[in-house]
Automatic annotation (TrEMBL), chains A, B:
Residues 252-258, 276-280 are annotated as: RNA binding. Its EC number is 2.4.2.29. It catalyses: 7-aminomethyl-7-carbaguanine + guanosine(34) in tRNA = 7-aminomethyl-7-carbaguanosine(34) in tRNA + guanine. This is Queuine tRNA-ribosyltransferase. The lineage of its organism: Bacteria, Pseudomonadati, Bacteroidota, Chitinophagia, Chitinophagales. The active site is at D92, D271.
Amino acid sequence: MQFQLHTTDTASAARAGTITTAHGVIETPIFMPVGTVGSVKGVSQQQLKDEVDAQIILGNTYHLYLRPGTGILEQAGGLHKFNGWDRPILTDSGGYQVFSLAANRKIKEEGVVFQSHIDGSRHLFTPENVMDTQRTIGADIIMAFDECPPYPSEYGYAKTSMELTHRWLARCVQHFNSTEPKYGYEQSLFPIVQGSTYKDLRRASAEFVAGMECDGNAIGGLSVGEPEEMMYEMCAHCCEFLPADKPRYLMGVGTPWNILENIALGIDMFDCVMPTRNGRNGMLFTTQGVINIRNKKWADDLSPIDQGLDCATSRFYTKAYLRHLFISSEILGLTIASIHNLAFYLHLVRQARQHILAGDYTTWKNSMIPILKQRL
Amino acid sequence: MQFQLHTTDTASAARAGTITTAHGVIETPIFMPVGTVGSVKGVSQQQLKDEVDAQIILGNTYHLYLRPGTGILEQAGGLHKFNGWDRPILTDSGGYQVFSLAANRKIKEEGVVFQSHIDGSRHLFTPENVMDTQRTIGADIIMAFDECPPYPSEYGYAKTSMELTHRWLARCVQHFNSTEPKYGYEQSLFPIVQGSTYKDLRRASAEFVAGMECDGNAIGGLSVGEPEEMMYEMCAHCCEFLPADKPRYLMGVGTPWNILENIALGIDMFDCVMPTRNGRNGMLFTTQGVINIRNKKWADDLSPIDQGLDCATSRFYTKAYLRHLFISSEILGLTIASIHNLAFYLHLVRQARQHILAGDYTTWKNSMIPILKQRL
């Protein structure tokens, strides 16, 4: 994997770059749609390419390990072959889902024992076997196995947890380096900074992570309930100690304005379920602001969902029709809202990149945020 | 509307024709996907064109009248403008849904009083106002308001019901002829033959319907629970007394083999929720037979859903991936199965047409039916 840094904004830490992977090029800053079990919910692979123009999608190791399982993924030749997505894929390590979804999880030095949320079966995730699982999934970018402490966490717990994450990281790196890709193309490992909301822990973690000299670095444990200002403070602090010549990935963030603010702090990569999950609830992010499409006011609005986007779906369907689909519980409504929201997120990061390259990112961002936040 | 009859099969009553409407040409025999509330469930308008190649879709007057309502449909300039489907649309009369879905329905000479299944509100459908509603929806083909008796029905009830349907039909025709299209293009009215499973009633009804000299004629009240052989017998009997120079539409039918058998009896048009509804339950109709995609046997089958179809979705996704989507309750599974089944139905009627034109329809049909019926 190669990362080329083209420009850093003069008035902020925003950067425009290019990541080159075995499955193609990613222009940063980038947003990665979440394809939990190998499908971005409600959106076909063709729509992801043609309508959303996604450059990379995310898969969840926890979900894919449980269903369909590594056997069929290996038989298919990896997730790309299994789901027909031939652009880059990043997989998380499963740590976050083990802590948020699984039952009876028990953290030990060796790893985490848990029960499947589907059938109660018992499993063990270790730094080593999670590397193996992601090798088998065939992700272009593999995430280290970490513990993600909740917000708020006591200092003592946050520190102990971070230290465990660091010991696991060392094991991840060693196991990753001692194993080969399964399908003939290169995979990259990204470690994850933890440390909850404590600046000294975040610095220590960022320095430890930076010392691993991986292809890119991630910041985890944010956007878990803390105030937005605290997220920005922690993110900025981490970025200070993460190398500038590697891509920086802020996990699980966030709203459109969160993304623009974090780009300004030096983040290159984002993922979040918000565009698809909120879309399925009828919440649309548009170039003019936020829409609750179920609202009565859209019942006779025959204007396109968003004329400001270069997305056929957003221009073809009207607000009145989309509202009708939601009110009538039609599946197509979920699909249209998901495609639109994802297309909007991708549009937003493309715009951000253009403004970074043009040298006016901060001005543009400050003018955009009030528009993006307004409720229509 | 114009109907041109190209060929009638020598060994059967199968016909190949062309219907020309204001929104384009329909090659018969044809299958019409059902777009209940103005959306074919789970399938986008673009997919309906590009993947399914639907030539005409159906809308349900009962559903569209209740939601989104005629106000917004008129404001949009009709359903074509509201849902973005610019090819032909046929609307049923609402009669069938009033009898199957609505609460506290009461049949009177004037029409039917019923309560909405959505909010319990009271409404009256009459032959006249149902014509007005369909004028407002802007369908290319409008159906007469009829009563659809259940199976089985006593002879006396079937006869009384049929006579009411005939009196309503006369009122429909008179009101239709005394009103104008709302959006500047021509609309056609199709009357409906009833008579339950009684040959003398079916003949009387077909002769009454034929006497109306409408642009096309429909057969209703079949595929409501009677044995298949009885459906074929009634259909053949009706076709005998319906003019050959008008399209014949068999409402609500059916399985792939039902369609091929009824084409052989002289039917030109079909609609059915089966491809979409069964698709959403994981039942796939393919060129090789019927598949229950949830079955364990497909878990590691990495072959395309159906290589025999000229449909990108059916060739792109594998059985193993589609099964995974169904087992994981992913929305995309419903969409893929619906697209595939509809594409298969359209493929089937296209093939039927080619064999009618080639003169070997009956031989082909008899060789196909055992294949279509087999469980894979």
